[in-house]
Each structure stands twice: as structure tokens, then as C-alpha cells.
Design brief:
By secondary structure, the protein is mainly α. It has one domain. The protein has two helices and no strands.
Length: 53
């Protein structure tokens, strides 16, 4: 059972990393293409991003 639990944890970790990577790629692609909709998809609906005055 311990091997099954360890494998499940590894799969969950890999899935989380891939989700983070996907979010970063959407952010970068949105910046590169000046695509506001794609850029917004990298944030939570109520997220904010301030870049100075």
C-alpha cells in the first residue's frame, strides 16, 4: 500500500507542476502577443496586478 500511496503522490505532484507550467505559459504567451484575454486567464477572477503609478 505504501508504494501505491507514494505513486499517487508523485502523480499528483506532476499534475500540479504541469498546471503551474500551463499557467506560466499562458501568462508569457499573453504578454508576448499582447492578448489581454489570454493574460487574464493566468489570474484568478478576482486577482489584481499592479505595476507602479
Amino acid at each position: 500500500m505504501a508504494d501505491t500511496d507514494r505513486l499517487a503522490r508523485q502523480v499528483a505532484d506532476l499534475m500540479a507542476r504541469e498546471a503551474i507550467r500551463d499557467c506560466l505559459f499562458r501568462y508569457c504567451r499573453g504578454i508576448d502577443r499582447a492578448d489581454e484575454a489570454m493574460l487574464r486567464s493566468a489570474y484568478w477572477p478576482d486577482g489584481t496586478d499592479h505595476h507602479g503609478p
